[in-house]
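Q: Hi! First time doing this. I have a protein sequence and I read that you can turn it into a structure. Is that right? Here it is:
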Amino acid sequence: MARAKRTVAPAPAKPDWGQLGPAMRALPNDQWRAFCHELITGKPGHGRYARAARAAGFGKDSTTPNVAKIAWKIAHDDRMIAAIAEESRKYLRGSHPEAVAALLAMIRDSKHRDHGRAVLSLLDRVDPVVSKQTVDITHRVVDPDAEALEELRALRQLGVSREKMLETFGGNGLARLERLEAADAARRAMEAKLIDGQVING
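A: Yes, that's right. Below is the predicted 3D structure, encoded as structure tokens:
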């Protein structure tokens, strides 16, 4: 008589958590990861820590108060806090299709109280208005000697004494400006003579 072939039950498949972030990878094991997932996606409200702990397999033979204590301790572990924050961000980003569906539902319902805001919100995000600003900057190169000469002439017109000018420009500075002023006056006089003596052919 042929012996019956013994079949071996396959090992339970390891949960596929997808590509884990660094905070989820830092958790001790998959049971902690399951707790994190249940805490984020499970039913909110009173008792959520205990419900997440039982769903993850913690405290199978423990009373509800004991499970709640275990759950509270795990939930407030620094590693779990980091993992919850990391997975919550992913969960919200993964909810984009639901947000799009809700926005489109408001846009398609012209009687919805936020219909207009929904339309503008969509337009602002899909085809934003680009505002363009043109800024013209003019650079003026100032000759310090010419500027000092203008100041000297202005002080003279105001009747400022030479002593005050010496205080303003200093002895050497005033003498230098006076030499520049004399040279400028001579140049202007020469230009005036050339213009007066120019022969114009008619």
